[in-house]
Amino acid sequence: RGLEANPVLLDTMDEFHYRAYSLLTSADAQSAFSFEGETDETFKLYGSEVTGDVKGPDGRLHPKGLAERLIIARRLVESGVRFVTLEYGSWDCHSGVEKTCLDQMRPFDHAIAGLVSDLDRRGLLDTTIVWVTSEFGRTPKINKESGRDHWARCYSMMLAGGGFQRGLVHGASDSTGGEPVRDAVTLENLIATIYHQMGIDANKELVAFGTRPIEIIRDAEVVKQLIS
Known about the structure:
- This protein is α+β, with helices and mostly antiparallel strands.
- The protein has one domain.
- The protein has 7 helices and 10 strands.
- The strands form 5 sheets. A two-stranded antiparallel ribbon has the order 1-2. A two-stranded antiparallel sheet has the order 3-6.
- Strand 9 and strand 10 form a beta hairpin.
- 13% of the residues are buried.
């Protein structure tokens, strides 16, 4: 009922819904979410032989799973989409960590390497940030179920493209991977650095409904060592 007293806000919400519907039903979206023009070589680059094949309506074998979704992600970037997210789960290995990681890592490494290589050869990598991350790491010690539990004190992530240095390993942990010992990067500083590469001022304040100011990030600095 409160929204009815604010016709400007309602009109804005209607406009957003219309724009979203128009985008999803457009010819450009239908093209981006297809495999039209993709070659067998590209499918293999992303690891179709690793993630498994399925015969498509064109009679060709197409990759299913992670490889397929990453190809769609690249096609969305090519079509002008500015933000694409993709989830690849089942890493919560509280038991049987060795088998879980082996099953996950092989297709993951292959597909991510394929995405970065594909973006690079198409001239898209320098203007596209690829950020591979999780919400936390895993405990340094194996538990009684031969697994690893949640651990937020030290973990790693990957950045590629977007003006970040190539081939750089930044920071270091102790021998168990339990604590950072050099060049630790806080989440706030990481986000500020990504925003910097996107041309976004991380010190800017947004104004929420009711004129309430919201800081994008608080007390953050750009990690210049990551930038090429």
